[in-house]
């Protein structure tokens, strides 16, 4: 290779080939990572959906197991709703009294 022009041509060609290969590898890697990310997200979504369905089924089974056998329509309330309301009112009253006691002791 005595001619510097031919040498420069082959050097440029080699540089272009190497840059092309590196660009191809980088693009392939990026697309591979994107594919893995997409697959992971789909798997997470599938697990999330399954978890929601399982919890909803469990809650429905728990609700249907605790409702009275005479209740046939879903709009009819369970028999212990009034007791639950009374318990909640009692807890609220206790909490109000505790808050009042805390306020009076801190002043």
TrEMBL record:
Residues 64-74 have a biased composition (Low complexity). Residues 61-82 are annotated as: Disordered. Keywords: Coiled coil. Residues 13-40 form a coiled coil. InterPro entries: PG18-like. One of its GO terms (biological process) is thylakoid membrane organization. Transmembrane segments: none annotated. PANTHER family: BNACNNG14650D PROTEIN, OS04G0513000 PROTEIN. This is Thylakoid lumen protein.
């Amino acid at each position: 290779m005595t001619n510097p022009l031919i040498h420069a041509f082959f050097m440029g060609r080699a540089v272009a080939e190497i840059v092309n290969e590196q660009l191809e590898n980088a693009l392939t890697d990026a697309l591979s990572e994107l594919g893995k990310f997409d697959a992971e997200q789909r798997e997470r979504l599938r697990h999330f959906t399954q978890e929601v369905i399982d919890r909803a089924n469990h809650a429905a089974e728990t609700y249907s197991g605790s409702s009275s056998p005479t209740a046939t329509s879903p709009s009819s309330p369970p028999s212990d709703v009034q007791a639950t309301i009374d318990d909640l009112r009692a807890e609220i009253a206790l909490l109000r009294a505790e808050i009042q006691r805390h306020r009076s002791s801190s002043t």
